[in-house]
Here is the input.
Amino acid sequence: MELNQRDDTLYFTDLDVDTDSVPTIGVNGKQAITKAVIIAAGNGSRLQGYQSGRPKPLVNLGGMPLLQRVILSAKKIGVTEFVIVIGYQAARIRKTINARKLGVKITWVRNPDWKKPNGVSVLKAEKYVDGKFLLFMSDHVFDFKILNRVKDYDLTHNSGVLCVDYAVNQVQDLDDATKVRTENNRLLNLGKNLTDFNAIDVGIFICMPDLFAALRQSQEFGDESLSGGIRILSEAGRMATFDIGGAFWQDVDTVPDSYHAEKLLLRSTRSPNDGIIAKTINRKISNRITKWLLKTPITPNQISIFNLFFSIFIAWLVAAGTPVNIIMGGILFQLVSILDGCDGEVAVIKLRDSKRGALVDTVTDHLSYVAFIIGITVGAYNVTQNSMIFAVTAFTLLFLFFALKFGLQYMKKKGSGSLRELDKGIAGLNHDEQKVWYLKALGSIHHLGRRDVFSFAAFLFMLSGNVVVVYSALIIAVLLISAGIAITAASLLSKSSGLNPFKATKRYLCMAWKWLVSSDIDLQSENEISTDYSNSRNC
Here is the structure.
């Protein structure tokens, strides 16, 4: 590899690429996608000087460079090989993006004509692509779930599919966007100056190698843009479109665009399943904290562990039992509830969410609960000097662990480490055909046991400064939540569910005994819950 220096900027000459290491996939419209082409050659003139003059692909947004975000998004759906076309400040881009750390293979291709339209850059990747591939622009931020939905698109009868957004009125900069005219999921026309349009080009394509011939044909007609080649395919009836629905995306061309993209990323951490307190209070504050955390190297697991130690400190604080300590502890406990959302938000935005991370979050959350319960217990004892308090707490914690065993087993069967999976399962018990009254009731009020509601209720009780009142309310709440988890999780796990309340205790004790000798419990579909009590079997 040889280096050229022109105008104080390093550029790579044609790279020596080991083409033997590139597997032959074959042209098959149904094949799984394992390769992506990313265009990162332009200079991003409207972002010149932003973030100390970084080239646009390296503009940091949401805790990582734009180009790295595209790579990791594609990696999440199984793409492992990338052909990245570079031009402006190519050496700096290549030095910053470390393929080994990202766990992918990158073929860097230089485009010396990077000032020309982007179709020229796409053509540079031709000899490194021999099958179905994803095509991205390096400056687009998008919800990776779009890729999950479009990855299996069948191109047997098409040369490509373009992801489009029909929410035209919500586009940040409509004048600069590439407009699209579609009909019955077919691409009819596209262009920035198109006046008759009904959708916007999101900048995500799945293409067959036919695209390269269309680009050459377009260049012969004097149009060197990617849109020119796509237009030729659409005129031949070979371009489809895919509606991204309510998913977010943003083309980052200007500083305001980058601010808007950051807002979209933060907004994506909010879930329709968030509790009422999380929606109205916690997320509004945690998003602001997360915005700062994204600028640091702090990881989601580190945030989870910090919250655990913070909770232990709160437990120590309330153990004194004095009104001042209880009130201060209540305020801090609500703060921990807010911070508890930050680890998940950072994980989602930095694309670091995983089953292991979800499990760490779940375990630290429950250890935080235990520490808090112990702290309140000691505080109540210091005030009352009644040793029976410890026995009540011990029984409550044992019941909680018993219930959580079923919850964790259900999460394991679902292949998840997050309590959100259990929460979804419990919510699913409340459906029109559900005739088991207590399961339907628990399914309808399950949200009251979420951490945001629990912590806020504890905070309100602790404002009284009376540790005995707080202890009593806490024990009752934990017992009720534990009973709800035990009944619903065991019902979801048991093949013969729909037990009546009087037979439930015996059944759950039987399941507990089975767990002691075997960790395997058959999973029951939420929709298979039976009302036939006669199916209940003895141990």
